Amino acid sequence: MGVALVAPDGSRLGLPHLEPVNGVTYPSDVMDSMARDADLLVLTNAKFVRPLVGPMARLGVPIAVDVHLIADLDDEYNRPWLQAAEIIFCSHEILPCRPELWVQRIFDRYPRCRLTCVGLGSRGALLGIRDGRLLWAKAVAPRGVVNTSGAGDALFATFLHVWAHTRDAASALRAAVLHAGWKIGHRLPVTASLTRVELADLAMSHPPLSTSGRWDGGSPGTVTPYWAAG
């Protein structure tokens, strides 16, 4: 359960109520049997999942997590997920540094991570790839902005869906930004989603603009802050 307070400009303040599930213990044997043949494990950073992260990491199945609001690279609560995940998403809202520098620090600190994405709100999203590439997709809102609740969830889920089927990070990022931008034009975004075909059709009329660079600037310790322009 949760309450979302939405301002006239579409921005929101979310107040989740997680206490009912925080006390739940998920059966590890069930998780183990279901996860072994999976292509990807999406492990929410809710409290009841925390004891499962270590055992799931040992299965060798790729793990994805959205840690949402984060300001500390060594965040004690989120550390198990950060250490285990190959795909890490977060919001830019309380980062202690520029998003592209955060991407570099994630890769330096967590060697298991292959892809890391920072949601930038009205600026779209920034995606770093372990090989040094940095992709930026500008925000697009085909129906305007009504309610931004769930935009980050839509970004995360859509990226994973497209990436899992194509392994094309750039296409997945553009699709994710477009779907999130479309959903926030709805009064209740959680109730509205596009099918794959509908999203492809929307991309024809509202193609997200993207550009690329390098989070390592071509050499260790150098970051190209191109994303902030425009």
TrEMBL record:
<dbReference type="InterPro" id="IPR029056">
    <property type="entry name" value="Ribokinase-like"/>
</dbReference>
<protein>
    <submittedName>
        <fullName>Carbohydrate kinase family protein</fullName>
        <ecNumber>2.7.1.-</ecNumber>
    </submittedName>
</protein>
<feature type="domain" description="Carbohydrate kinase PfkB">
    <location>
        <begin position="118"/>
        <end position="189"/>
    </location>
</feature>
<dbReference type="InterPro" id="IPR011611">
    <property type="entry name" value="PfkB_dom"/>
</dbReference>
<keyword id="KW-0808">Transferase</keyword>
<keyword id="KW-0418">Kinase</keyword>
<dbReference type="GO" id="GO:0016301">
    <property type="term" value="F:kinase activity"/>
</dbReference>
<dbReference type="Pfam" id="PF00294">
    <property type="entry name" value="PfkB"/>
</dbReference>
